[in-house]
Design a protein that fits this description.
heterodimer; A: alpha/beta; Rossmann fold; 5-stranded parallel β-sheet; two-stranded antiparallel ribbon; 11 helices; B: alpha/beta; 2 domains; 7-stranded mixed β-sheet; 5-stranded mixed β-sheet; 37% helix; globular
Chain lengths: 325, 325
Amino acid sequence: MALAKERLLKVYKDMFMIRRFEEVIQEYAANGTIPGFVHLSIGQEACQAGVVEALQRTDYKFPDHRGHGAIALCGTDPKLVMAEIFAKATGINGGRGGSMHVNDLEYRNMGFNGIQGSTMVTCLGTAFASVYNKTKDVTAVFLGDGTLGEGACHESLNLAATWKLPVLYCLVNNQYAISTNYHDAHPQQELKTWGEGYEIPSCRIDGNDVEAVIETVEVAAEHARNGEGPALIEMMTYRWQGHFAGDPAAYRPEEEVAAWKAKDPVKKTRGDLMQKHGFSEEALTAIEAGIEADIAEMLRFSLESPAPKIEEALTFVYADREVEA
Amino acid sequence: MSRVLTYAKAINEALFQSMERDASVFILGEDVAKMGGDFGITQGISYKWPDRIFDTALSESAILGLSNGAALCGLRPVPEIMFADFLGVCYDQLVNNAAKLRFMFQGKAGAPITVRAVQGAGIRCAYHHSACVESWFMNTPGLVVVSPSSPYEAKGMLNAAIRNDNPVIFLEHKLLYNTKGEVPEEYYEVPLYEAEVEREGSDVTIIGLQITLPMAHAAAKQLEKKGVSCEIIDLRTVAPYDKETLKASVAKTGRLVIAQEGPRCGGWAAELSAMISEDLFEYLRAPIKRVTSLDVPIAFAPALEDFVLPKTEQIVAACEALMEY
């Protein structure tokens, strides 16, 4: 079942936007404007845009540390996400979180996390709350192939399966945990078997095919909403860049990188719009120019915004106490 | 109306009354529902609220991860970790998550969880069931660490902890479970962050907690016969601790002995000692003395365990040394 023309165009715009968003972040991390670590997700746009597209605003989302794209699509104004990554007072979290910790309760983006495996168990709680409060909201947690090495993953899969919690394990298999290929870290050929071991319905799909991602996550979300429990979706993809902006990624064969770049999810979706839905080159170029203008505005906003006031460092540590400087 | 209860029963009563007051309070842990807890602390709750108390797999990370996630959704989880030593298994969920969620979400949400665990040596169970763990956590801003010393405190502080909006680590001492004391029948709270002067005196201040308090009182009685007047303070909340009460006492007596059950190096006694030295140096008539366990794991054999734990006579000797300084 293919997506309707309008919906495919919408997710294409999403994917194009987060591609350009990440390229800008890459540039400004490289030139030293953005402090700290930045983990890019160029090449993984179909996983990010597809999962978010398949969810509702009230569903809980736990993006991973490579999650700028998903975050920027959850509903938060993307310029506030960019300003956060630029460590600015206008950032959605006032500059206290940055690249690895952007969150926005209003859109139920529960913030990603610098500790691998950590959100794998935190996500149980939002799913539990849906059951306890008798709502239909599901919880989607992004994890990577590397995350599965963490013990907390087993506790999470086991408890979610036993209690039939509405958790969608969105496994972005980009094949490398920093430098280590998943075949060198795990015995299974397909990581979806981790879900199957806990009797969780699990599948492996092409993570560069945004239509496949949306359709699969929508079906899983529907099951979870109906009390049928968790699902695990292994999305095969590839990160084009190193682990962090600046990592030359010398540990990967050049041919492998080239082969995956040829499977560019953004280009693929663009091609589908032209071939299956009759969009012209000119029409898509005009749409892309509009997004470029949005990105330029996000960048201007991020660059011109002030740094946070230093007193901010002392706020929100305790609910009921001040912290002395 | 007040009557005599054990420390264990006082905690059980606090759980009942807190759950009665607030439907968002729930309990989860290992053997807490059907069995009523390894030490019987949650007995009877599953009969009254079968849908608000949950037995889990042996999964401490999942227990605390679920608690954190549910707390972000507005629930008030009261997870039980069977022995405080096992907090090592789920340390990440406490120090990297619970402690930082309010900061991360800029006060819009936090982790109002109350983690109950039993700590302390003295039951011949060796080094995986005997630790005192306050110091494992007090170096993490955002966490509240409390250690009640009497049935009255246990009930009142647990009620306060559950209603508190910060993550609270509530440490019960296994040797205190069968101790008895006056406990009001009605719901009440003992405020967190406040130490209590249990005995007034003029020559030496002794700060104690849980099982070192009876030792301090025994020492004070012996010293009284020798004309030494001891002031005894129950620290109650270890982090963040009550600087003002401690400082007021030491400013009066000019001498300080800190009696702590856990190992000496890097313990909470070291922090109190550093604070008093920095803030009240000119009031001190003698160096600060610590009476603590030795810096070794707790051994199984009774003679070995007894040898390393702090004792009344050591408190007496420390006070005498200060008087003679």
